[in-house]
Amino acid sequence: MPNNLPIRKIIHVDMDAFYASVEQLDNPELRGKPLAVGGGGKRGVVSAASYEARKFGVKSAMSGTLAIKLCPGLIFVRPRFERYNEISKQVRKIFYEYTDLVEPLSLDEAYLDVTENKKGNPSATLIAKNIREQIYNAIGLTASAGISINKFIAKVASDYNKPNGQKTVNPEEVITFLEELDIRKFYGVGKVTAEKMYQKGIFTGKDLKSKSIEYLDQHFGKSGRYYYHVVRGFHNSEVKPNRTRKSLAAERTFSENLSSEIFMLEKLNHISDEVSRRLNKSNVAGKTVTLKIKYSDFTLQTRSKTLPYYINDKAILLETAKDLLYQEKLNNSVRLLGISISNLNTESSKKTNQIKAKQKSVSVQLKFEF
User: Fold this and answer.
1) Residues with catalytic function
2) What average pLDDT does the structure give for the chain?
3) What reactions does this protein catalyze (predicted)?
């Protein structure tokens, strides 16, 4: 256990194959079958895959063509984000029965600080078990969890016994756990970084820990300092409830590349409608509109414009997106268009009902039950 660290009881809950599991929950005929949420065909992309499909190597962000090649019997279903959001709210309602310190990362995962909790339960391990059982009994979906002294280790641990499992890393086990961990399992180390680390003889946490902070800064830039600290168990980021949304976006990938701006304007009309709907549903508005353009050669371009006032109206949003489209000549035919709005009014005004719970540090000398 690292010296002089505050000990918190952090749980990271991660729903198992969330989108695909919701589809199987709602349609019993899909249960036990290889399923992908997303678009099939030569231009489709997998958003999520069931565990039955993952056995064949199908995974998110994979092209529909490759997914079908790997798993000929793969079933594609269109995503239903309103339904996923509905289920996500039910799951979060369960979280709040245990603590107000809940930090959602996405629809299917969140951090919980249960150092002090509404149940008065001193065991974070038992709380995680109870939460997972309650989710299954109330909704019918399984979840996995990681439990430890900080968000980083809890996040890594939640992936350890997936699906439908959990892992606790006790304070006295932290150093050994991190030293034995494959570098690919470190949250924040992507495929490219992992390959670079392999080339430098870094395969495990112990290898990473042997490198000086100067070495890591030199070879991994700003991330080097992060790697230096987390491999030693230092990650003091608190669980932050009511995370402020910084942007809102929608985009579309087309079945055929678009060359005509007339067809692009038609697509932008639908996209701006979706962005406006989401803005109004979230009761927010923004000033900066960004147009995202992905060309047929996969090069990406963004064009932005900041207005002098906040907007959430579709007409103004569409008009601004049009201006950005005509701002300069397109480089090629287009396979994807997206609109995002940032510089939101949520960033300039604090919510009056913001939770003011204090996250207490506990001396490492105390007996601390996990």
Assistant:
1) 109
2) 88
3) DNA(n) + a 2'-deoxyribonucleoside 5'-triphosphate = DNA(n+1) + diphosphate
